[in-house]
Amino acid sequence: MALKIRNRxxxxxASASLLAAAVIAGCVFxxxxxxxxxxxxxxxxxxAGFAGALSPxxxxxxxxxxxxxxEVRRADxxxxxxxxxxxxxxxxxxFTPDGKAVRTIDVEGGLRLTPVSxxxxxxxxxxxxxxxxxxxxxxxxxxxxxxxxxAAARAEWSLNPxxxxxxLDAPSVRAPILPKGVRPQPGTMFRDCQDCPDMVxxxxxxxxxxxxxxxxxxxxxxxxxxxxxxxxxxxxGRFEVTLEQFRQFTRATGHSAGGNCFxxxxxxxxxxxxxxxxxxxxxFPQSLNxxxxxxxxxxxxxxxxxxxxxxxxxxxxxxxxxxEYAARAGTTTAYSFGTDADRGxxxxxxxxxxxRKSYPDWxxxxxxxxxxxxxxxxxxxxxxxxxxxMHGNVAEWVEDCDGDYSGAPPEGGAPxxxxxxxxxxxxxxxxxxxxxxxxxxxxxxxGNRVSSLGFRVARTLPP
Length: 463
Ligand SMILES: [Ca+2]
Ligand SMILES: [Ca+2]
Hints:
Elements: H1 18-25, H2 27-32, E1 52-54, E2 60-64, E3 70-74, E4 79-83, E5 90-95, E6 101-106, E7 111-115, H3 121-126, H4 133-136, E8 139-142, E9 145-148, H5 151-155, H6 161-168, E10 189-190, E11 199-202, E12 205-209, E13 226-230, E14 234-237, H7 243-253, E15 261-263, E16 272-274, H8 297-311, E17 315-316, H9 320-328, H10 353-358, E18 395-401, E19 422-425, E20 441-444, E21 453-454, E22 458-459
Parallel strand pairs: 18-21
Antiparallel strand pairs: 1-2, 2-3, 3-4, 5-6, 6-7, 8-9, 10-11, 11-14, 12-13, 14-22, 15-16, 17-22, 18-19, 19-20
Bound molecules: calcium ion (2 copies).
One calcium ion binds at residues 349-350, 352, 354-355, 369, 371, 429.
């Protein structure tokens, strides 16, 4: 196996909603029986109730949440946007009689009118084709809230990475389902079906691949640096493929990802190929939203083929160049959050102080990132493109055969054909910070399965 010996696990191979709450409180009964008037509910004084309203046309509800924001939903319960007070919690919300605005009052008496169109609802309703309505009102997510933004407003976004990160940083909220025939634009999110992976559209661009000689922790195989042109936008999985997503694939196809996963079956540092360890049982507990592990390169490719068939789109692994471009998200520093590995515990799941308690011989960071093994997808901050867990959590297979940069294609393509080692990127929960850098490169026999190794999907976009 073409593996380097490092202090990393796999190298040891060589060695419901508020509306529901309203239903429980019986208040929806009030608004639903009076859709022809400006429905209005007030928070009972001294009680943990709520204020809510129904739009005059009966299409939307607005309910004040415990955090003082008004949450607007469609009548069927689908979330569409938030209205907040300028600086104080809201205590009252109504729709105006003409239905064109949401009128809110905050605890200090401040009145605010928020046009319905500002929530994107009007743009959605005016979209020329019914199939485009959802997309015309693409959701943008921001810390602490979310809102709908019209297609026209979206066209005015700059591709400022920091701006995109703010908009996309809400991992618990799913991307909208992309209507057939719609080409997603850079800076937006989508998924192709109900259970498909969330995708982020990253813009085209040029970047410098590899690390400078001055980068701390650098390995020689990260250079020489070279210029790469990612010529067209592409869709990248927002998260690593999860256990639940992989389970859907195996149920649908009968695919058997075998055992003999490289793992630590007893949690006592006796790592090795373990016959009984596999993706359903990697020798540590996982939630269904954790990234799937013990997946070899062929398993990942089989998943892509199935997902492509299910959706009619071209799903594939990222090339190595695309992966680094996506991980850097416009940055040139060792990590997408900067150069300071000591800040890493807020940004990535790697080998940390918690891991050292179980594995005293490991090189780790000095901080506690909260996870010994895998973390649920999206547990850490996204990078500027809105992608999660590019640094750490699980290391990720990419398409390329292993090779040095002098012979690799310059335009982001992958060497094709049979090869004895495929590239792995990003490092994992078992790796010290220096092995989680954007430029770090690993490689492995494509048949190997490791309890810290998974993958991420990409999708080619039509021209
Ligand atoms: Ca960790
Ligand atoms: Ca990762």
